[in-house]
Specification:
The complex is a heterodimer of chains A (148) and B (123). Chain A has 148 residues and is an all-alpha fold. Chain A contains five helices and no strands. In chain B, 82% of the residues lie in helices and 0% in strands. Chain B starts with a helix and ends with a helix. The chains are: A mainly alpha (148), B mainly alpha (123). Chains A and B meet through helix 2, helix 3, helix 4 and helix 5 of A and helix 1, helix 2, helix 3 and helix 4 of B. The structure holds protoporphyrin IX containing FE (HEM). Protoporphyrin IX containing FE (HEM) sits at the interface of chains A and B.
Chain lengths: 148, 123
């Protein structure tokens, strides 16, 4: 839809951050957005950093030496967390956006059901898988610290 | 001619699926392969990095991942900006800027991946 009258955002920043009367999926959305932006920022830096290989071994080692500090390792782990969340939640989004796990329309009779509730188990499953991915990857990041 | 928004969005989802596979492989090699014992040694060692760069399969995977992730990430950013109720003119300017940024970043990344091939070939 073109033209700005159609899409006035009256709530400002709160319209973005607050879950309101929506469920946990509303926060899943906020997190998806934050992680998407975080990964994008990392990715753009990543393109330049890893391109150091064209300058030869010495340049590569200088860059890697610079990045081989606890502070950067913690930062990289945060990016890894963002990746695990965004990737797994992204699978849920693609599935539901294509119409899977939403059920068919039904009468509003007690006990009420709706498509958000019906897809909720998918959210639980993908988050469990994300946690496993984080735990496995966490081992690799822990090894970066002395004493490990 | 304007591309329909739904077409751009469908490519956003397709790119997400491509990234899932390729970034999954990338993350596995960089952070999990050691754990499962499929790769030995430091994957960030220059020799290890060059070994992958010079492997045609890896090179192709990197360039495809680069393109898919740039499209997906920058289109996602565009979506977020457009939700702020900006004017149509601003939307057009931002679209052009994002395309230019995407092409520039693609060229940098593709050069970073492929230049080592021509260096090896003595070009
Ligand atoms: C690991 C595979 C990935 C999958 C499966 C995935 C999936 C998705 C999906 C389904 C959406 C929402 C689309 C919509 O509902 O309209 C999305 C949004 C987004 N993604 Fe990804 N993505 C992945 C990787 C990435 C990467 C690597 C980046 C950064 C380069 C990224 C950046 C973004 C951004 C900025 C958004 C927009 C967020 C928003 O509109 O709130 N994603 N992703």
């Amino acid at each position: 839809m073109q033209g700005s009258e159609f899409k006035k955002n009256r709530l400002g920043l709160m319209g973005w951050l607050s879950g309101g009367r929506y469920g946990v999926e509303r926060y899943a959305y906020t997190l998806h957005r934050l992680t998407g932006l975080a990964i994008l920022a990392y990715f753009i830096l990543h393109i330049f950093v890893t391109s150091a290989r064209v300058l030869g071994e010495e340049a590569w080692n200088t860059v890697m030496g610079f990045l081989n500090s606890p502070a950067f390792k913690v930062g990289e782990f945060l990016v890894y967390l963002a990746f695990a969340y965004h990737a797994l939640n992204g699978i849920r989004l693609v599935l539901t956006e294509l119409g899977f796990f939403l059920g068919t329309p039904c009468q509003p009779v007690f006990p009420y059901s709706n498509s958000v509730k019906r897809q909720r188990p998918v959210l639980v499953v993908v988050m469990i898988v994300a946690a496993v991915v984080v735990l496995l990857g966490g081992v690799d990041f822990l090894r970066a610290f002395p004493g490990e | 001619m304007r591309t329909r928004e739904s077409t751009l969005w469908t490519w956003h989802l397709v790119a997400g699926a491509v990234i899932l596979v390729l970034l999954g492989i990338h993350m596995f090699i960089m952070h999990l392969a050691d754990f499962f014992g499929t790769v030995q040694g430091d994957v960030l060692e220059f020799s290890s990095v060059m070994e992958r760069s010079l492997d045609a399969t890896f090179a192709v995977m990197y360039v495809v991942l680069l393109a898919a992730a740039l499209y997906h990430g920058l289109y996602g950013l565009r979506n977020i900006i457009f939700e702020l109720s900006i004017s149509e003119r601003a939307e057009r300017v931002i679209s052009v800027l994002l395309v230019l940024a995407g092409v520039a970043l693609f060229l940098v990344g593709a050069y970073g991946t492929l230049a080592v091939h021509s260096a090896q070939a003595g070009v």
